[in-house]
Specification:
By secondary structure, the protein is of the alpha+beta class. The chain is about 30% helix and about 25% strand. It is built from two helices and eight strands. It has helices at about 25-30, 55-75; strands at about 1-5, 10-15, 35-40, 45-50, 80, 85, 95, 100. Strands 1-8-5 form a three-stranded antiparallel beta sheet, covered by helices on one side. The chain has a three-stranded antiparallel beta sheet with strand order 2-4-3, with no helix packed on it. Strand 6 (about 85) and strand 7 form a beta hairpin. The protein is globular.
């Protein structure tokens, strides 16, 4: 998986050892709070992400467009939008700004 991202502000809520969310519980928390951009890191901490600002949003859509056009030529996988929650191999669920998933995982890059 090749992922490109941008720096955003996140508020971290450390849940452990008091609480451990299962994947289903995390999913329910996300759909119960649709106005929040929630992510989870490999340690199980809950991350509340800030929305992107205009300049970052514009850069992200430009980058995603280039990614889609490049992938149409090379046909190496599936491109996802920035709001897609991805379960990472090392643990956690994150939303990169643009992502290409292939059969052979390349890892995620967050710039």
């Amino acid at each position: 998986m090749l992922c490109l991202g941008s720096v955003t502000t996140a508020y971290t809520i450390k849940l452990q050892p008091a609480l451990t969310l299962t994947d289903d519980q995390f999913y329910q928390l996300c759909i119960t709070n649709p106005d929040l951009k929630l992510e989870r890191n490999a340690q199980g901490d809950l991350l509340i992400m800030s929305p992107t600002v205009g300049e970052t949003g514009n850069r992200n859509v430009e980058l995603a467009t280039e990614f889609v056009l490049w992938n149409r030529q090379h046909r190496l996988g599936v491109v996802f939008v920035s709001s897609t929650g991805l379960k990472l191999p090392g643990g956690g669920e994150r939303s990169p700004r643009s992502c290409l998933d292939r059969a052979i995982s390349l890892g995620c890059l967050y710039a």
